[in-house]
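Board notes (copied after class):
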Amino acid sequence: MDDTADPRERNMNEEDIMKKKDMIFEDILKLLIAELDVSPTDIRPDMTIAEDLKFDSLQLYEFVIDLEEAYDIRLPDDLLDNVSTISDVVDLVYSLSIEPKD
């Protein structure tokens, strides 16, 4: 059997993974609501950070720092370059938060 899945994900079914991602989205939503002073219904996972949310560089920096502190992770610049939507952020935070700490 050729199992290439991450060992931490082998014990998680799709529903568990989606629950974890939903929790991350809710946390991100709280950060965005506080930063942008908008209603939760104004934020969708497919929204882009730069164009739809109109984050400037300082807001983006503060957002990244808040996520790193909340999840005890490091968001490397090379990975952030590939992130454009809120959903991308959720996926990145999820993948980094399940990695073992050094």
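Comment from the instructor: The chain is about 55% helix and 0% strand. Residues 14-36 form the longest helix (23 residues).
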